[in-house]
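re: that chain from earlier
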Amino acid sequence: MTEQIFSPATRLARWLMGARPATAPSIEAADPLAPMSPRYGWWHGSKYPGGLGGVNLLVLDYWTLRARSAELFRTNLYARGLIRRLVTNEINTGLHLEAKPEESILGYQVDGLADWSETIENRFRIWEADPLLCDFRERQSFGGLQAAARAEALVAGDVLVTMRQDQRTGLPRLQLTNASSIQTPLDVPRSGNRILHGVELDPQGCQVAYWVTQQDGKSKRLPAWGEKSGRRLSWLVYGTDKRLDDVRGEPILSLVLQSVKEIDRYRDAVQRKAALNAVLAMFIKRQPGTTGGRSWMGNAGISRGTDVALDASGAERTFNFSEYAPGLILDQLEAGEEPQGFQSNGTDEKFADFESAIIQAIAWANNVPPEILTLGFRNNYSASQAAINEFKLYLNVIRTEFGEQFCRPCYLEWLLAECLARKVENASSILEARRTPEQYDLFGAWTANDWAGQIKPAVDFSKLVGGYGEACDNGFLTRDQASRELTGSKFSKNVAQLARENAALADANAALAALDNPPAPVPEAPDSEGSDDDDVDDEEEKPETRAHLRPVSRAKGN
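^ sequence. v structure.
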């Protein structure tokens, strides 16, 4: 009977370990000082039998998750708000290129490639600002494509990016494909490959192609790399983190689908309840036995009518109603009749607290401070600054991942196209390093880059500037790092721009200074014959008393 309380797997394990049905020892043989024999058991997470229930082996239904996520994005204000806040803070107007070639590896002196980096950034900025150059559909700039790709990856889990070569300019153009179009076809893949959720994998597990369903229902194979050129042709950009063996991304809303759906229903119910309670203004309360007297719904009503409804027993009941102008006074009510105001406290007073708790959980699950997600800044300076600093950690991770997944491949293809067209310096060295696998270090040194995003404005900018200034003075931080973290700009560009502005300001002040300090007049030769003008006041001839313009002094810190 003792063995029957165990499951078959447990009984098998006990048999393998040599366990036998326990028998109660005799009282005479029991030794209280003898050491207890060890017991073996299984640790499966439950602290007591049935604590966690059965084990669920989940199989991801990507199609259903994407469909429900897309539905909530269109119809649910919480889902739309979450996606918008993330895209606005992460991408904003787009991540910007900062070319940083490794000069020591390439054999250049410090800042020896500063002009080359400046030229590359300026030329890339021309390409990314023109939709005719960078967008296959010729609609959006590179910054707009970044925002669209990020939003689609968050809603659908991933997005397919395809490089299209522009025959007119020789430059690459980007095409974004919806994740729902990537499906497993009925065709047999190449020998040795397998297709999983529309992604073709080689025996090593590398993604070699993507199968896109066309409008006519046919599937088209898009290779990930060019067979002859070896250049990047298409790849997936993921919106959230995924497991190691997952080939498709999971929508960010998949974890909170039911929560945002039900909180939105709750909000609609509370709003509808308040609206219905506001429709019924008052009613007449009659005591038992009171006969209906003269109707007080007279000429003061704006509109009158009747409504017929069925009660619980199925009998019809007729209700008279009337809409009245404000300020109505009732008179000549019958005995036993009393006007009764309808209570307007029908809304749920605890809805705001419940909504705040749900939104806080959603924000915590997505690494976003609740006050930033809801734009509710009601805390003190320290709490607000702590929330901003915590959010910066999240932004640094997301921008680094998105820059590596989306921006860096685009930059590499653009740079190779520019080198093939011989429009940048050192094009031959870059192409040679690209074609030679042994020169991976040189190619990586030429193409090293960073992607900077929009900086969130500080609550107290003067305090931050003072702290960053002390860090730079003590050598804890470079001025370039401080410039990027404070304003999102490059220190070298700021210095060059300030030099031009200061030179222009000095030229303008020089002209004003000449008016403020005119040269001394040349003394005239004395007139031997004398003049009748000797009595003129000498003060009128002093140059410092003449009217002239004065320069406007600049305020300190401008």
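Confidence is low (pLDDT under 50) at residues 535-549, 551-558.
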